């Protein structure tokens, strides 16, 4: 269990805003601190101290801290003030080429942690972010995710206004448009085709060029992005649908159940049967 994975909301929507104190309370006072695959933005009502990958940071009140995925976190006396952790996945936030550009900019991915003053006061932050999200969370889940996306965008823009993104650091927006279109096409066709050549053809570029752009912008090649999408959808069906494994095999465009099983095991370390079994065990536990 990590700082972020204890939230069922985060698992379901890919977004969460909670205080570190609330996380501590829910986890019985234990706060392991790895950000896993999540992006985290911190903001506190008072000065606080923390370690990120064993490096010490003193953070002032009303400052924003931008933490990329896969970082080890430890807070010093987190009970003393409200430290809000706005946590989200790339899948939750990325809806356009600009979203991708911002999320993969030096705001998160630079040699030093990005810590900047916020443009809003503590009362404004609670009113515009915390309280507004609480209202939508209780009344309209569909609007809640939209409001969450807008809140994250405002905090990211605050960070960008405090840093220089000119010159060599600025990613080419034409490349970002290709990435954005690639993700749209992948959403439409991942059941039909898993070849990089198929998507590069639709994008009117070369497979090698698409791979280079993916590695430049997202840090992983096109083949891996396609594979991750298929594996994610397979796990979702295995854990949440009533389809049997054979039906899931053909639903995802595989012609052979044995090949599908080997594919899933190769990329998850578990067979489809084992993934399905664990999901059924969790379901039985919840009913009890």
TrEMBL record:
This is AraC-type DNA-binding protein. Keywords: DNA-binding, Transcription, Transcription regulation. Residues 180-278 form the HTH araC/xylS-type domain. It holds the Pfam family HTH_18. One of its GO terms (molecular function) is sequence-specific DNA binding. It comes from Sinomicrobium oceani. The keyword DNA-binding applies. SMART domains: HTH_ARAC. PROSITE patterns: HTH_ARAC_FAMILY_2 (PS01124).
């Amino acid at each position: 269990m990590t700082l972020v994975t204890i939230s069922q909301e985060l698992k379901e929507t890919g977004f969460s805003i909670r205080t570190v104190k609330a996380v501590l309370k829910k986890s019985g006072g234990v706060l392991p601190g790895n950000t896993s695959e999540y992006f985290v933005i911190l903001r506190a009502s008072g000065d606080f101290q923390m370690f990120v990958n064993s490096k010490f940071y003193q953070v002032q009140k009303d400052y924003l801290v931008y933490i990329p995925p896969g970082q080890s976190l430890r807070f010093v006396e987190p009970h003393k003030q409200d430290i809000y952790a706005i946590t989200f996945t790339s899948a939750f936030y990325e809806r356009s080429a600009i979203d991708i550009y911002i999320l993969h900019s030096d705001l998160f991915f630079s040699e030093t942690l990005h810590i900047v003053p916020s443009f809003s006061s503590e009362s404004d932050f609670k009113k515009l972010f915390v309280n507004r999200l609480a209202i939508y969370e209780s009344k309209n889940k569909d609007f809640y995710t939209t409001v969450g996306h807008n809140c994250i965008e405002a905090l990211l823009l605050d960070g960008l206004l405090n840093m220089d993104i000119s010159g060599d650091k600025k990613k080419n927006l034409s490349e970002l448009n290709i990435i954005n279109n690639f993700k749209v096409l992948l959403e439409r066709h991942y059941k039909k085709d898993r070849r990089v050549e198929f998507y590069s053809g639709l994008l009117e570029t070369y497979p090698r060029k698409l791979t280079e752009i993916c590695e430049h912008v997202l840090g992983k090649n096109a083949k891996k992005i396609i594979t991750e999408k298929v594996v994610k959808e397979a796990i979702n069906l295995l854990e949440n649908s009533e389809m049997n494994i054979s039906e899931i095999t053909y639903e995802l465009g595989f012609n052979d159940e044995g090949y599908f099983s080997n594919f899933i095991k190769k990329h998850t370390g578990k067979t489809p049967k084992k993934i399905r079994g664990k999901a059924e065990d969790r379901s039985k536990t919840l009913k009890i």
